[in-house]
């Protein structure tokens, strides 16, 4: 019996001791759990803080990338501007060199001109006499032109409508404007019978003045023309002037060395070609009576002045 009691007592003490140990472990584990839980909370807070920092870093990184791109674009723009400035500098240098070359040329030209002026002045020692000679020549030319114009008007007046004939003095020449309806059939270079009458009277004046040349200029309006015989208005104007000089040479014996045939086409118009009246005025033949060119050259040559 005593033995049984001892055994029960031993077992009871063992159970009590086991219960005490388990409770201590539980308290310790609970304490560790609370610490771990607290640390876990702190880690969560730290994690949130680090996530916020990471987000801020990413934003800063994007901002820096944008600044880098902007800086790169600005750098490219500056490089292009520098390239343009270099090209402008090269162009300015080329222009400067060209201007320096022109200055050199002008200097050479100035020296040459100075020498020519000296030579001219040396040739014109008797300049007053030369000027008087020019003035006398001009006066004489004006007198000749005036007399020539009066003669032409007088011989052309008989039987000719003034509206179809115009005699003018322009500086050193006398010219006669003849309408196309007086000289030619429409759209051709064939002369009318009336044209022979007019050209015969002009030939009288020309023949009496062997020191004069005669230039015949043909003009048309702007209306296009093309036939089997005529290519365009240029062709028509030349053919008409050629017809006139041929008549002066063949029918009236004017020296062909004194005759000049020229075509002006539809250009140098007197009136607008927009109206029928204007086109009628533009269709004309101009006969210019002028001194021979060598007479002008002799007149302007100081070596030809009488001593």
Order of helices and strands: HHEEHHEHEHEH
The DSSP helix count reads 7
Q: Give the N-to-C terminal Cα separation.
A: 188 Å
Tell me the CATH architecture of the largest domain.
Answer: 2-Layer Sandwich
Strands, total number = 5
CATH topology of the largest domain: 60s Ribosomal Protein L30, Chain: A
* Uncertain segments: none
How many domains make up the 3D coordinates?
A: 2
Beta-strand share of residues: 5-15%
Mean pLDDT figure = 77
Q: How would you characterize the overall build of this protein?
A:
This protein has 307 residues and is α+β, with helices and mostly antiparallel strands. It has two domains: 60-123; 127-300, 60s Ribosomal Protein L30, Chain: A (2-Layer Sandwich), CATH 3.30.1330. 67% of the residues lie in helices and 11% in strands. It is built from seven helices and five strands; from the N terminus they run ααββααβαβαβα. It has helices at 2-123, 127-157, 180-183, 193-208, 233-250, 276-282, 293-300; strands at 165-170, 173-179, 212-218, 259-263, 284-291. It has a five-stranded mixed sheet with strand order 1-2-5-3-4. β3, α5 (233-250) and β4 form a beta-alpha-beta unit. α2 (127-157) runs antiparallel to α4. The longest helix is centred in the first third of the chain and has 122 residues, at 2-123.
